[in-house]
Backbone:
């Protein structure tokens, strides 16, 4: 599987047979970043905010799109997805509404994207989401969980790889905390890719005994 980060919370997942799923696409200009350069067979959106719902930027004609879809369903008639409701704040959604976290299985790898999660998960929800091989988690605070809360969630879910997202980068016009706030408090090995692309297999992840944090670069 190939994982590409397009900035903010937008990720492109490419299966071994070339099927492309994009999660939480932004339109670029609205947040001060370059638009995602991806062509998706399917788009998953964790919630309907402007910096996560720009499906029209990436979706191929005739492609599938899903907004806050809960429960178990198939994408592309073969890729299993589980949508689990959570909240954008610590007040059951009263301030920023609900979100849907997506757990996807691609090439036998379990990927969890928690969207703009605003609270620490309960034990019961973590049990529902396990096992997690690759976790995409916000660390920039303000609108989501902060660095300390993200660290707590990583320890609860125990993924093989944790990918930080939704933090301040040069150019972005959102008042988020920088990645270093997160990296300075964790005790995991950090792998800095030096690009926005990561190719990984289930067998390679199985070798990792403990969680590693994988840091992407913005696309050039």
Residues:
């Amino acid at each position: 599987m190939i994982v590409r980060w397009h900035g903010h919370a937008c990720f492109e997942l490419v299966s071994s047979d070339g099927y492309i799923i994009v999660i939480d696409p932004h339109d670029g200009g609205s947040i001060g970043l370059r638009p995602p350069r991806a062509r998706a067979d399917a788009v998953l959106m964790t919630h309907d905010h402007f910096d996560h719902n720009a499906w029209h930027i990436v979706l191929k004609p005739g492609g599938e799109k899903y907004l806050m879809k809960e429960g178990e369903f198939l994408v592309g008639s073969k890729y299993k997805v589980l949508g689990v409701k959570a909240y954008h704040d610590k007040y059951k959604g009263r301030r920023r509404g609900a979100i849907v976290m997506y757990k996807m299985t691609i090439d036998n790898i379990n990927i969890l994207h928690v969207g703009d999660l605003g609270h620490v998960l309960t034990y019961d929800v973590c049990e529902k989401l396990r096992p997690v091989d690759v976790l995409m988690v916000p660390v920039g605070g303000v609108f989501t969980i902060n660095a300390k809360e993200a660290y707590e969630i990583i320890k609860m879910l125990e993924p093989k790889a944790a990918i930080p997202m939704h933090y301040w980068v040069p150019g972005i016009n959102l008042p988020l905390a920088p990645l270093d706030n997160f990296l300075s408090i964790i005790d995991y090995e950090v792998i800095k890719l030096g690009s926005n692309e990561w190719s990984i297999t289930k067998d390679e992840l199985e070798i990792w005994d403990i969680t590693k944090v994988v840091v992407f670069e913005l696309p050039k």
Summary: Residues 122 and 199 are 31 Å apart (CA to CA). The radius of gyration is 16 Å. The longest helix spans residues 147-157. The chain has a mean pLDDT of 95.
